[in-house]
Amino acid sequence: MTSFLSFLSKKVERYIEILFKIDNFRRVRMIKGKVFVYLPFIKKLDKHLSKRSISNLSREALNSTDKISPCFLTAIPHPTTGIGHAFSEWNTGRIIAKICGLQFVHISLPSGWNKFLAFEGNNISLKEVLKIPSIRIVRLPEFNYRTTDPCLEIKNIISSYKPKYPTLFVLADGQNLYQHHLFLNELKLCYFSSHLPSKILLKMKSGNKRMLTVAVHIRRGDIELMRQKHHSNWKERYLELTFFSELLEVVRNSLPAYDMTFNIYSQGNEKDFSSLLCFKDTNLFINYDQYETMNDKVFSDILVLSPSGFSFMAGLISNSFKIARYPWWHDIPDDKDWCRVSNKPSQDSQNIANKLLSFFSNQLV
Fold first, then answer.
1. Are 273 and 157 in the same domain?
2. Are 107 and 180 found together in one domain?
3. Of the candidates 90, 118, 81, 113, the residue with the CA atom closest to the CA atom of residue 290
4. Structural domain of residue 12, as residue ranges?
5. Who contacts 149 (Cβ-Cβ below 8 Å, separation ≥6)?
6. Is the dihedral of CA 284, 289, 294, 300 positive or negative?
7. How far apart are CA 159 and CA 68, in angstroms?
């Protein structure tokens, strides 16, 4: 029986890793700083793990009184949401870890996005951290990230734990940073080291220095379903086609020295977007591959965002000029790379023109 319990205890880390993604610690308990899975039908495992953890911690305390152990922080991307929402939770953990001086622990993003975004090999994995002997796991409470210093309370909690034993801090479920544009260099480096512009985009430019590709993301698909079901949040995520046609007219008039190709990315039927085809050199990419859509948006010269986490993720990674309706549920920077617009872009035409001219002023020879 003892050998069987020992075998099960060695598998505990795997159970925890599954719970991170599926059940978010609802069935995870903590005894003497050691996490284990509480399963009522094997209570003896409970007792066995408790004894083992007490023994390990005692030896650790005796042998390493002056030792400073590593501390880590992670966030659990929601496994059933879209990539934009999951990425925001993941990126919140990454930024908070940086601010607090902790090592960020990577938990995989949904579907094939983990591989596509090339994040996994650049961060320590949860599996690696859970192999550390006597690792403590501390679940952090929820915080309001719109406060002046959203990380102050987290820093105070973290500093209250003496670094005698290695500790993994876990952000509360659904925590989402307001200012996601902090610490972007690492994200950009990961992406641009493994991706190139598509052949379609390169063909559009075809050596013409005056040609600018304008990616326009129009959120439909899921938002149309929300609209039909009268979901309470659909209005803040839905933009009429008149918003985009008005904005594209302003963009084109702001840069008369350039040629432009407008690429519309959305879901639905092509006929639903016929009103935008009045613009010269407009291409529709409807129900296009999601990875190709992301890559085209990142590598376009100008990116027009929809109120969407998918759009926002592309905007954070891209080095292009970004235009977004404001306010958003995230902070949209007001700097040289970003331009905030209202629901009536024509009213912001002067600001849009000034920012575009400033951004592209050094491109024409």
1. no
2. yes
3. 113
4. 2-63
5. none
6. negative
7. 13
- Express each pLDDT in 263-287 by its tens digit: 999 988 898 888 888 878 999 999 9
Tokens of 301: 């010269």
The per-residue pLDDT for range 52-80, each reduced to its tens digit, is: 333 333 333 333 344 557 889 999 988 77
Backbone angles phi, psi at 48, to 5 degrees: -65, -45
Residues above pLDDT 70, as percent of the chain: 78
| 164 and 53 fall within a common domain | no
Query: Phi-psi category of 241—alpha, beta or left, where left has phi over 0 and alpha has psi -120 to 50?
Result: alpha
Q: Is the residue at 365 inside a domain? A: no
**Looking at the structure, do residues 150 and 224 belong to the same domain, yes or no?**
no
Domain contains 341:
yes
Whether 24 and 112 share a structural domain = no
Co-location of 134 and 204 in the same domain? no
DSSP for 45-94, written as a single string: HHHHHHHHHHHHHHHHHHH-TT----EEEE----TTS-HHHHHHHHHHHH
Half-sphere exposure at residue 88, Cβ-oriented, CA atoms within 13 angstroms: 22
Give the mean pLDDT of the chain: 79
DSSP 8-state code for residue 272 = G
Count of domains forming the chain: 3
CA distance 45 to 202: 60
Distance of CA 139 to the CA centre of its chain: 20
Same domain, 355 and 240: yes
The Cα 147–Cα 150 span in angstroms is: 5
Amino acid 301 reads: D
For residues 127 and 272, membership in a common domain is answered with no
Distance CA 126, CA 160 (A): 23
